[in-house]
Structure formats: structure tokens, C-alpha cells
Amino acid sequence: MEMHAFGTLNYIVLLVYLAAIMMVGMYFAKRQKSADDYFKAGGRIPGWAAGISVFATTLSSITFMSIPAKAYTEDWTFLLGQYIAIIILPFVFIYYIPFFRKLNLTSAYEYLEKRFDVRMRLFASLSFMLFHIGRIAIITYLTALALMPFIDISPLTIVFLIGVLCIVYTFMGGIEGVIWTDVIQGIMLSAAAVMIFVMICFNVDGGMTEIFRLSAEADKYFPADKMAWSWSESTVPVLMIGFLFASLQQFTASQDVVQRYIVTDSIEETKKALVTNAKLVACIPVFFFAVGAALFAYYNQHPELLPENFNTGGILPFFVISQMPAGIAGLIIAAIFAASQSSISSSLNSISACFTSDVYTRFGGEKSPEQKLKVGRLVTVTAGVLGVIASTYLIMSNESELWDAFNSLIGLMGGPMTGLFMLGVFVRRANANSALLGVVVAVATILWVRASTDLNFFFYGVIGTLVVVLVGFITAPLFKNSHSDEEVKALTI
Questions:
Q1: Where in the chain is CATH 1.20.1730.10?
Q2: What SS3 state is found at 482?
Q3: Any stretches that span the bilayer, and where are they (predicted)?
Q4: CB contact at 8 A, 136 and 345
Q5: Which fold would CATH assign to domain 8-400?
Q6: Residue-wise pLDDT tens digits, 88-136
Q7: Measured distance CA(213)–CA(293) in Å, rounded
Q8: Around 261, how many Cα atoms within 13 Å sit in the side-chain half-sphere?
């Protein structure tokens, strides 16, 4: 395939964006006086900004490119899963947000020690940290891989631009810098999706009407065969169940989202954050799928513009580089960088919060706020470097088929964590040993299912969550509870 020159103007636009993000990190660096500032922003974040940050954090560059590709090659069924996050918000509002606000936690996993014991805290925290170091590597690698065929920037340079700059501005600005850069990046992502769709509409004969007519004619919205139940395929019922448990994991047990609950100055602002996120989830993903439909219509009318044996997974960056005006193309590529950086910077700060709170502060003598801040920044750099090294290794070894395998591990790690929080919050009879047994059985069950069956990976999170809750409930009478009834009552609903 012919490499398209990125062009001077596009380079300028991309570099201006990267410089602006660095300046945001530098601006908030002066406010980072203690670990509370670095991980909680001193409660200075307004709810609407925290909401945009949650949206940007959960939308990676791979999502930004893969959703249009899926709508282009397949259908819109994955759109239904996006709305599950909205459905669970009342549940999160009523039960989890008051809990996290009341306990004033830095790490969400502090709760698991209060409710069970230090083993459960360390299991969840270490699982989160390892998963997110891997997530940083995968997102950086796949972003570089997706852009490499279309722009004259080497993949290692892309890894450097994404990874190293994330480390620098997260190191300087803490969670406050991360959230405000997320705001910029979230707005860029949303504006880019709308802009691309509008521009393609002007280039398709018949405009928007023709775009949606062609998709309907090709049965690319919600095909009837995707409505049936399946144990192995990602049909609509499977997607709905899988996304339900994945959303529960994100909003109740994942530090990168839960951390946003404690950066505002009141519970009302925290709830406003999730309402803002819900509004964005309700609107923006539709545009990503509409972009895929528009690309389908455009290349149906202009098939000669697609190279022979083209890999349609890169259809969005290919269109941006080959068809959009200079400057605008640079802005869209900057938005792809933004999608990657928003996810990575959130992972870096959350890993740092977990290690500082769950390992460094938890063990040993009393630590000063300044010591916690110093260690938090050191962990930010260490986690970022490990992610960059891992993504560099993936590029050099030309690994493939990583994303599906990595997604399947969300159920392995995320399911038991979600189950632990659910068990702790709702099951008073549960205790530390029944929770531990639940985790062991859940992990063993998922590993067996993954190795011995063709069950769809969306079920892994379901299995992990439910097995922990059921085993923890059933086996609780076999073990003595180390906490008093009053302590348990204060930590449960």
C-alpha cells in the first residue's frame, strides 16, 4: 500500500496539540503539594469535568478506530452495549457512590481490607495494576500499528509521542492534570467524530439519506440473526449481559473510574459527573457508528479509491489521511492520539494511587504527605516506562491477535474484583476466608472455561462475579468472621 505523506501542516497541528497537553500538565504541577492533591485533586474538580474525564478514560484510541471499522464491515449491534453503562448508573448512585465518599478512600481497594482483610485488598490492587500496565502497552502498540500504514511516522516514534508525553504530564499534573487534559481530549474525540461524519456526508452522492439507505439495504444495523441467543458468538443478548458486567466492573471496582468519585467537593458533584458521562455515552458512540456507515457508503460509490486487499480495520485513518484536507487530517490524528493518551494517563495515575496507598503506605512506618507524593510520582514514571518497553517489544516482535486475548482477561481479573465488592457491600454474612475461597474458585473456573470450552469471552466477567458472590455466601458459615457485627454493619448495606 502506498504510504501517504503526513505533510507539514498536519505535523504542525499535531505538535501544537501535544505542546498544549504538556502545558496543561505544567500548569497543574504547582498545585501538587501532597499525595491528596496528586490523587484526589483536593476536591477541586467540578462534576461536569470529572464526567468528561470518565468518558474519555473509558474510550481508547482503539475504540475510536475499531467502532467505525466494525460498522463498516459488520453491523451496529455493539452500539446497544454502549447504553448498558447508562442503565446501571442508578444502581451506582444509590449504593456505591455514598460508600466511596463516606470512607474517603484514596484507593478503592482500601475498602476490601476494611471489609475482609489485607489479602483481598492486595489481590484486587495488584490485579488492577498488572492489568493496567498491560493495557497501556496494548493501547500504545495497537495505536502505533493502526497508524503506521497511513502516515510517515515510525511506530517507535508514535510509541514515544504517546507514552513518554503521557508519563511527563501525568508526573507533573497528577489527577488534576489528567482530568483537565481528559476534558480537552474528550471534546476533541467527540468533535472529531461529528466532523468526520459531516464531511463524509458532503462527499457522498445523496448525502445522509443515501448513507443510511445503503446501510439499511445491506442489513448493517441490527440483523435478525444477531438477536438469537448464543454461547459462543457475540450476539445481542450476549453483548447486553457482557457489557452489563463489564460496566459494573468499571463503575464499582476499577480504580481509574472510582477515583473520579472522590475528586469533587460533594456527592452531588460526583453524581453530576456520572450524569455528564451518561449524556456523552448516549450521544457520541452513535456518531462513531454513523462514521462507519458513511465510510461504507462513500467507498461503495468510490471503490477505486481503496487499495487492493486493503485491511478494513484501518478504514478510518486511511480515509482521514487520503481524503481530508491538510490541517483537518492532522487534527483528527491528534484526536486519535488524544484517545490513546486519555486512557493511558488515567491508568498511570490510578496505578500510582494503588501502589502508594495499598503497598507503600499500608506497610512499614508512618509516611509523610511529601514522601507519598514522591513515591506516587516515581511509580507513575515506572509504570509508564514498563508500558512503553512492553509496547516496543510488541512492535519489534510483530505480535498479533492481542486485543481479543487481552479483552478476555478482563473477565479473569475484573470479574472476581467486581464480585468481591458486591459480596462485601451486600452480603453481611460473608467474611475474609469465604471471600478468598470465592476468588480462588472463580479464577480456577474462568481458566478452565477459557481452556476447555468455546464460551464467548463476554461470559468470563459474568462467571467471575457470580462465582465469588455465590461461593462467598454459601461458605461463609464455615469460617469465623474476624470483624464485629457493628463493624460489618457499618461496611455493608
A1: 8-400
A2: coil
A3: 6-28, 48-67, 79-101, 122-147, 153-175, 187-208, 228-246, 280-299, 319-339, 375-396, 408-427, 434-451, 457-479
A4: no
A5: Sodium/glucose cotransporter (1.20.1730)
A6: 888 888 888 887 888 888 888 999 999 999 999 999 999 899 888 888 8
A7: 10
A8: 26
